[in-house]
Automatic annotation (TrEMBL):
PANTHER family: 3-OXOACYL-(ACYL-CARRIER-PROTEIN) REDUCTASE, 3-OXOACYL-[ACYL-CARRIER-PROTEIN] REDUCTASE FABG. Coiled coil: none annotated. SUPFAM superfamilies: NAD(P)-binding Rossmann-fold domains (SSF51735). Gene3D superfamilies: NAD(P)-binding Rossmann-like Domain. Belongs to the short-chain dehydrogenases/reductases (SDR) family. This is SDR family oxidoreductase. It comes from Leptospira brenneri.
Length: 237
């Protein structure tokens, strides 16, 4: 009897997370998707189950980890994708926004990784972190977001070194400008030129190439960038 492949994906209801989830479903995975507002996701499939959880709230994370997921022991893929960004001069970022970003980008991935690592060791599974090029560069007004991404990049690299001896593969995917609703709360967005941004399904394609064939070697880190670098400021109403 073939064991069902099971994946756990955060931020799964939209953007990059949804594209990854759809790719996994097409590949035969049962996907447990975590998101804040499951009701806003239009994608439905027998192999796709959304679970509501605000990953910036540690109490909700505790509740999530205690939920009875039938195939929990079969999880072989953990994808950390959920994220959001507030860009502003450091003195203008509220304590609520700073805490929300810290919890979502650092606390949640670390708690979930700790929770699932024993299962992933047993299944010789994978952990995928969706980072950001902002974590490699100096970002004006992106001080908190970029610093947190740099932190999770380093965490992923540490895990790669720690877990490879147990057969757990860790990948850090670093997308550059990607056309999603990530930019809804920012005063800039990708340019109209299609060569200046990535699409979520392109990130999913890269991950598909990594996970579907076990070739006996691992690519621990990949940066994906569009051909051109162009941004534009949003028009003020």
């Amino acid at each position: 009897m073939t064991v069902q492949k099971v994946a756990f994906v955060t931020g799964a209801s939209r953007g990059i997370g949804l594209s990854i989830s759809q790719m996994l479903v097409r590949s035969g995975y049962k996907v447990y998707g975590i998101c804040k507002h499951p009701e806003k996701c239009d994608f439905k499939h027998d192999l796709f189950q959304l679970i509501g959880c605000d990953l910036s709230n540690s109490k909700e994370i505790d509740h999530l980890m205690n939920q009875q997921i039938l195939e929990k022991k079969d999880i072989s893929l953990l994808v950390h994708n959920a994220g959001l960004a507030y860009f502003a001069p450091v003195e203008e970022l509220s304590s609520e926004k700073i805490r929300e970003m810290v919890n979502l980008h650092i606390t949640a991935p670390m708690l979930l990784t700790s929770h699932f690592t024993r299962i992933l060791k047993q299944n010789q599974g994978r952990i995928i972190f969706i980072g950001s090029v902002a974590g490699k560069e100096i970002s004006p007004w992106g001080n908190v977001y970029a610093s947190l991404k740099a932190g999770i990049h380093h965490y992923a690299r540490e895990l790669f070194a720690e877990l490879r001896k147990f057969g757990v593969k860790v990948h850090l995917i670093i997308p550059d400008i990607t056309k999603t609703d990530f930019y809804n709360y920012l005063n800039f967005e990708p340019d109209d030129d299609p060569k200046s941004y990535l699409l979520p399904n392109q990130i999913a394609e890269v991950i598909e190439d990594l996970i579907l064939e076990d070739k006996g070697w691992v690519v621990p880190e990949i940066q994906i960038s569009p051909e051109l670098f162009k941004l534009k400021r949003k028009k003020q109403n």
